[in-house]
Specification:
- The chain is mainly α.
- It has two domains: 49 residues; 94 residues.
- Helix 1 runs antiparallel to helix 2.
- The longest helix is centred in the last third of the chain and has 25 residues.
- It is elongated, with a radius of gyration of 22 Å.
């Protein structure tokens, strides 16, 4: 990979990271064939390193989830979000396919599936909060906010349309 490009890519990382890993990472990049995939991976990694400040200066690339993005990749955080998206998609597909049902009809399988997803999502959010809140309260509040917004988005069409 081009030396000027390697220097530019290294500048995208925080100074503490460059001091600790810069030379070794530059050697690795010089030895690699490069390409757009490598450049995009390096830029994404640099963005994550800048966005997630380590708990102590000088530490970087720890296994400790130091950002909301890293914490949201945990299964206990991601699964409730996926359930919200699935519940919203289920309602939207049912509305597009069948339209708004008349009042006082049987709920049907779609409604029961939506209810199960929402209940399981609530349990998942509670599990996530119990597991991670003592360890990283500031980050957990950010992920919880995303989870709650997604849950409200899944409930909104049901509430607005009176389903």
């Amino acid at each position: 990979m081009n030396r000027a490009l390697v220097r530019w890519l290294l500048r995208t990382y925080p100074p503490a990271w460059r001091e600790r890993y810069g030379e070794e990472f530059a050697d690795l990049l010089h030895a690699s064939p490069g390409g757009m995939r490598t450049i995009s991976d390096v830029l994404l990694s640099a963005f994550c390193e800048r966005w997630s400040r380590p708990p102590h200066e000088g530490l970087a690339m720890s296994e400790y989830p130091g950002s909301i993005l890293a914490l949201s990749k945990q299964p206990s955080a991601f699964v409730p979000m996926a359930m919200s998206i699935a519940a919203l998609g289920l309602v939207l597909v049912a509305l597009a396919r069948f339209g708004i049902p008349p009042p006082h009809t049987d709920e049907g399988a779609v409604a029961h599936t939506w209810q199960l997803l929402m209940v399981c999502q609530g349990i998942g959010i509670a599990w996530f909060a119990v597991k991670w809140l003592p360890q990283t309260p500031r980050l957990v509040l950010g992920v919880l906010m995303v989870q709650v917004v997604l849950a409200v988005a899944a409930m909104a069409p049901v509430y607005v349309l009176g389903l």
